[in-house]
Every structure is written in structure tokens, then in C-alpha cells.
Amino acid sequence: MAADEKAVVPYPWYLAPGPVLIPFTEAGSVGMGTGREDAVAVEVGLRINGTTRRLALDPRTTLLDALREHLRLTGAKKGCDHGQCGACTVHVNGRRVLSCLTLAIAAQGQEVTTIEGLADGEVLHPMQQAFLDRDGFQCGYCTPGQIMSAVALLLEPCGPDDDDVRECMSGNLCRCGAYPNIIAAIQDIRAGHS
Amino acid sequence: MQPFTYSAANEARDATRLAAADGGARYLAGGTTLVDLMKLHVEQPTQLIDINALPLAEVTELPDGTVRVGAMVRNSDLAHNAIIRARYPVLSQALLAGASGQLRNMATTGGNLLQRTRCLYFRDTAMPCNKREPGSGCSAIDGHNRGHAILGTSEACIATHPSDMAVALIALDARVRILGPNRERVIPLGELHRLPENHPEVETTLEQGELITALEIAPLPFAAHSLYLKVRDRASFAFALASAAVALEVRDGIVRDARVALGGVATKPWRSRDAEDALRGAPTSVESFRAAAEVALAGARPRRDNGFKVELAQRTLVRALTRLQRVGDRAHQ
User: Fold this and answer.
1) Which ipTM did the prediction report?
2) Interface touch B106/A101, C-beta < 8 Å
3) DSSP A69
4) How far away is chain A from the Cα of B23, in angstroms, using its nearest Cα?
5) Nearest C-alpha of chain A: how many angstroms from B236?
6) CB pairs under 8 A between A and B
7) Please, are residues A83 and B37 in contact by the beta-carbon 8 Å criterion?
8) Whole-Å CA distances, A7 to A3, A115, B41, B216
């Protein structure tokens, strides 16, 4: 096993290595249908935050559910689960996408980065620090998605003004209404003073 | 979500053979519509064929100046493509008016064309819907239909086609390259989507297994002077209540040629050739634009909640033409 690989995460119904036939008697994955149907677990290899993880997954499992329910990476949040809120935003090959609308099996071979992979050890990513400095959150539920979106935005052709940032960040909802401070945090980083 | 088998295609023709042999097969591209609707049990494919590895993600220029857009080009990449921005700004603007940054990074050109309606009754399996369950009835015709279509409707379905991109593309006379198991064909975009009529469940002229591989946009020099205007309930990340894609060729204050298409108000991407005819030869005045807008909406059939769309679409079109004309005037000063 390569140094950067971790073992298959043991899961009660996935103890056997490799593809196995598993009759699902209850929902194998949160929010993924009735679970009464028979389904086949398949081995899925994912690159998460620079580490290769191997999982036995029902093909219906979204990347979000694979992260949260199977890898215990609960930073990416499940808000609407339908691509409308942005709480589940992660990076795939450096671009921001919605993990709730991405099937884990289809993310194989891609480099996935989650909020857990942003900091350098104990040193926060500048955008994380800027959200703290500017108080860019209240309840915090949307924050991982906001930060992942904000970090990706730095590499996108987004205009310079606050209104441009509002438009570029419109895929991330904040029901606490922390928008002014979120914009301020992002503009701090874009202006180069963090 | 219903169970499905999954495979990743390496070769387009193989994918079409696989899909043609199985009525339950669907292609998985960006997944932004399909995965969403699978969770709602609206889409229930038994086989997913992942086409993300197919080499269809390039924008290339053909010798005759036609721009070919691979079906897997992501919406964000197409919006920011230098050729598209220079020659077809209406397309770039339409793409950026749609969805969110994350969705545009995922959604593909081919998938955008095939996205399903946002009609709430279509998305709710507890409600009758002729599009989802043929013959069950239309809940929208006498229901909450504020967002629904006023053009191209039938007594069976009034669902709006939600795409912004397709509205710009139909104004640009784009063509669709389609690969099947036995043949390849190219059709005008106007022949891809069907009107609902008595079979709203059949949305396109694609046959089982056929795969959109590219879009082709022929040279249209005056499209460098084009614009997309979208009106919606909130400033960003919302579907259109009304939108207009317009291009104008103006000489000496007279419209020599025009392209007009409407979004948010029709059951398919809606080109208005009547409005174009009305504009051709007319002076570039608000009166001419208003006359064209009236013609464009002449066939509108509003329902209980969406009567406002008739005037809204007219005003959207007039404003789009006016704004485009002002940009042109400034450019010539």
C-alpha cells in the first residue's frame, strides 16, 4: 500500500474486499431512496485531499454522502441536496462543484479537495482566516461551502467590484445573512491584505 | 433513487451502441439535472453511461469559420472562451446569466440543451403530469402556473424550457451534431426540441442511444453586436421569467438584419422570425422595437397566473434591443 493511501474504511455491510453483492435492507446512504431495492456495492477509489481512499459504495452514493457518511469528512454540509444552496461545495481538480450532484463513482480519478484539506496543518488558509477576521458567518452551516467557493473564485474571471463578487458567490446561500462580511472577507484576500 | 448499473465510456460510438440497446439507459454528463431528478424519482434510469471521459471538451474553429463546441465543454469554459466572447457575446452572456458558478463548472453544452423543465408538478411525483406520466393530466394548466409558458403550449403541457444558453444558440442558428450507433447527423437546433402538443413526454427528436457530440455555429458577423437580457425574481441564480437574445445589423439608422429569440416564456427555445421580419428595414427606434415585440408575443396564450409574462416579455425584448442599439451608437461615435 502506498504511503499516502489509507485502508478501506470498515463499514458493517462492506467488510468484504472488492465488489460484493449486498441486499440493502435499509437506506445504505442518507437521502438516497427507499433502500428497499437490491443493490450491488462496487469498489470506488477516490483522491481526497491528496490521499487515496478506497470504499465499497452503492453506485447511487453521491460524493457528498461518500465524504460525510463513509469517510467521516463532515465539513461539506448537506443543505438542500439538490444543487440550490452551495453548502456542499468542494473542489474537483481545483474547480468548485457541488458534491451533492456528483456521483462518487463518477469522481474517480479526480482530485477532490474539501474544507478539511484547505489548512496547512494548524495554519489556516488565508480565506479561512479572513472569514474569522471579518466575522463572515453566524451559525456556520454554510461556511465551508462559502469558503470553498471563495477560494475557487480567486482563480476565476470575476470582476473587481463587490457586486461582481455577489454575482460570483450567488450559488452559496447564507440564511443568517452574513453576506456583507463574507464579501468583505473575500475582497480582503483579493486585495492582497489578509 | 432507483438502482442502476454504471459504466464509463471511452469511445463515443461504443457508448451509443450500449445506450441504443437499453431503453433504461441514460448518459451522465455534468449530472446537474439528471442526478437531481433521480433523487426525486422523476428520472429512473436503470443504466448510467458516464460520458465525461469522451474527448468532446474542445472549442475549435473549422476552416470555413464555423465554431464547433464539443458537447462536454463546461458552461463556464464556453462562457469565458475568447472566440465566443468576441463573436457571439449573446452566448457568453446567456451562459453567465444561468445557474451558479458551481453549476456552470459542472454543466455541459450538450446537457444544457437537454435539461428538463423546472415545472413544480413535473418535479413532484405525487402530482399528475403528462410529461412525467403520459395521460395522467396537467396539474399546471389550472394550478400554480406563474412560471409557466405562454408560447408553444398545448392542452397537455405548459412547461417552460429553462435554458438560457439554448435561447442564445437558437438566435445564432446553431446546428447540433448527433452520433447514433449507425449514423451521424447534423440538424438545426430548431429541430432538436419538439413542441409538447399531445406528447409532452417526447421532448426532443433524438432517438434512443443518440448522443449530442457538438454544436456548430456558422459565421454571423453581425452577432458580434448581440446581447442577452434576463429578467427574474432575484438578481442572480434564478430561472428567467422572461429573457431575450438579440443581434442587430444596423446601417444608416436602419435595421438591415436581426435575430430575436425569447426565453422563460416558451415550451422550447423560442426564435421569433416574425419579430425579425418586423425589424428588418425598420428604423432603430423604440417604436419599431415595440412593434416587433408585439409581433413576437402575438400568439401568446396566458393562463391564470402568468398573464404578466406577455407584457414582461415585450418590455424585456424592447429593452434588450434598445440597450444593444445604444451600445452600437456609442461604438460608432
Assistant:
1) 0.96
2) yes
3) I
4) 19
5) 6
6) 92
7) no
8) 11, 22, 34, 48
Distance of CA B103 to the CA centre of its chain: 16
- The three grid cell numbers given for residue B276, joined into one nine-digit string: 425579425
Q: For chain B, which domains are there?
A: 222-331 (3.30.390.50)
Determine which helix (DSSP H) or strand (DSSP E) holds B228, and give its type and residue range.
strand B226-231
Burial of B194 (0-12, 13-18, 19+ CB in 10 A): middle
pLDDT tens column, B215-258 = 999 999 999 999 999 999 999 999 999 999 999 999 999 999 99
Check if A150 contacts B (Cβ < 8 Å).
no
- Closest Cβ opposite residue B101 in set A59, A102, A171: A171
Best residue in A101, A113, A148, A183 to probe B by mutation, most B CBs within 10 Å? A101
pLDDT at B67: 98
**Do A37 and B48 make contact, defined as CB atoms within 8 angstroms?**
no
- pLDDT tens, residue by residue, B39-95: 999 999 999 999 999 999 999 999 999 999 999 999 999 999 999 999 999 999 999
Half-sphere exposure of A131 (CA within 13 A, CB side): 22
Under an 8 A CB cutoff, do B106 and A168 touch?
Answer: no
